[in-house]
Amino acid sequence: MDHSAARTTAANQLHVVLVLAAATGGIGAHVRSLAHGLVAHGVTVTVCAPDGSDQLFGFSRAGARLHTVEITPTAGARSDALAIGELRKAFTGADVVHAHGMRAALLSDLALRTAGRFPGLRPQTPLVVTSHHAMLATGMERRLQRLMERRVVRAADLVLGASSDLVARARELGATDARLGPVAAPPIPLGRLDRAASRAALAAGEKQPVVLAVGRLVPQKCFGLLLDAVPHFADAEPMVLLVGDGPERAALRERITNEKLPVDLLGYRTDVPDLLAAADVVVVSSRWEARSLVVQEAMRAGVPVVSTAVGGVPELVGDAAVLVPFADPAALGGAVRELLADPDRRERLADAGRQQATTWPDEAATVAQVLSTYDELVQRG
What we know:
Blueprint: H1 3-6, E1 15-20, H2 26-40, E2 44-49, H3 53-57, E3 65-68, H4 77-91, E4 96-100, H5 102-113, E5 127-131, H6 139-155, E6 158-161, H7 164-172, E7 178-180, H8 195-202, E8 210-214, H9 223-229, E9 239-243, H10 249-258, E10 263-267, H11 272-278, E11 281-284, H12 293-300, E12 305-308, H13 313-317, E13 322-324, H14 329-340, H15 343-357, H16 363-380
Parallel strand pairs: 1-2, 1-4, 2-3, 4-5, 5-6, 6-7, 8-9, 8-11, 9-10, 11-12, 12-13
Helix pairs in contact: 2-16, 4-5, 5-6, 8-11, 9-14, 12-15
C-alpha cells in the first residue's frame, strides 16, 4: 500500500515542521503563533530552531515538539552539514516543511533533496517558504544573498511573502507559486499603567511630548536617521525614548552624548504597552519593513505613527499614519513636529489607526490561511 497516497488532509493527521534560524524578534513570534494555532487545530508540529530559541519564544509551551538545529546566519561547510543532518532527522514522516527566512529555507531544501537516501524521508515533501525580509546587504554579500534567494524561491513549492513587495520579488526571481502571507501581530498585552501613571514613571513633564521608537538596534531600523531628525522637532522639548538593544547601541549612545540629543536609550524592555500609553507619537525610521510589529501595536493602542514609506508599511497603514520618504531627516522630523503641535490631528490619526487595525488579519485568520495552503499542497502531492 502507498501510505503517502493514503494520507488525507485532515488537520489531525498532518505533521508540519517549522524551521527558523536564530531569531530574536518578529520571525520567532510568528513561528510561535503558528505553532500554537496549528496545534489547536490538531496538527502535529515540530519546530527546528537553534538552542535557546525555546526559552525566548516558548515553542514547546505552545504544544510543539522541539528539535534543536543550529542554523547559523552565514554559510559554513561544517555547520551547514551538521544542520542538514539534523533537519533530515526532523523531517522524517513530515507532511509539510515550512521554512522561515532564506537561510532556513536553503538548508531545508538541501535536506529534502537528499531525502531519498534516508529511510522515512520523502523527497516529495512540500516545501513552503515564508519570506520575511528584503535582502539589504551590499557588495559581494549582496550578490551571494541574491543567488541564495533565487535558488530558494525556485525550489519552494510555495513562497509566502510577508508584504506585497516580497511576493513581487519572489515572482521576479522565478517562483512557481508566490502569494501574500501577512504576519499578524500577536495581541498586545494590557499595560499595567494608565497614561498619567506611565508618564509619571518616566518623569515626563505635564505637557512634555513623548516620542517613542521601538526596535532592534540594527542597520535596517536606521535609528541614526531618527537621531538626524530629532533637531527638526527639538524645539518642542520632547522626551524621545528609543527602546531596544542590538549591535548599534554603542554608536547610537555615543552620538546622543556627543550631540546632546534629548534621547534616552532604554535598552530591551518588557513594558512596551505602558510606554505606548505615555507616547504622543511613535516614529519608525526603517530602511525597510514588511508588516512592522511596532506600527501594528501603536495603531491598535491609538498612538499616531510617523513612518518612512518603505516595504509593506504603506499597504499596512493606508491613510491612518503619516508617511515620509526614506533618508529624509527633515521630512521625518518635520512630520513629528507638526503632529506634536496639533493635538486634534493626533486624535484623528489615533481613531483612524484603531479603525485600520480592524482590517488586519488576526492570528486565528493567519493560521487558518496557512493551514489551508498546507492542505492544498498535500492534496496536490
